[in-house]
Amino acid sequence: MPMAVRGPRLLAAGLLLALAAACGRAPPPPASGLEVEGGSLSFSAVQGQPAPPPPQTLVVRVDKDKAKRIGTGPAVGETADWFTARIDGEPPELKLVVSITRTTLPPGDYRAQLEVATGDAQENLLQTRPIELNYRVLFRP
User: Fold this and answer.
1) Per CATH, is 2-19+37-138 categorized as 1.10.8?
2) pLDDT tens string for the chain (141 positions)?
3) Where would you tag: which of 61, 72, 77, 125 has the fewest CB atoms within 10 A of its CB?
């Protein structure tokens, strides 16, 4: 059964993942049903540099017996357009991958909030976890 989250708390469509039995020895499921290791990511780039900074990842653990769908997207009201996010892997242990898409922003500090959310089979929102994103654009020397 594919996993996805749709709901009022997410502006972006959830990334579809297939639920599959974990091979080998999987870590125990999180007690809360959803855990994200770390709550923030920081990036920096020089304005106009040819390539954005490398993507960064956080580990996401999901209790697949409680959550049938998972997704990520900007928090409600978030207007930042300088990042993308996706979830890779299969439950119970997944990776949240965040990438910077623009180095052409004016120099300064930028902040955004991303959410990881789980839902049940009927697409009801179960839990969300906020992730703070910080992006520093430096003056070109």
Assistant:
1) no
2) 344 433 333 322 232 222 223 334 455 555 568 999 999 999 999 999 999 999 999 999 998 888 889 999 999 999 999 999 999 998 899 999 999 999 999 999 999 999 999 998 888 999 999 999 999 999 988
3) 77
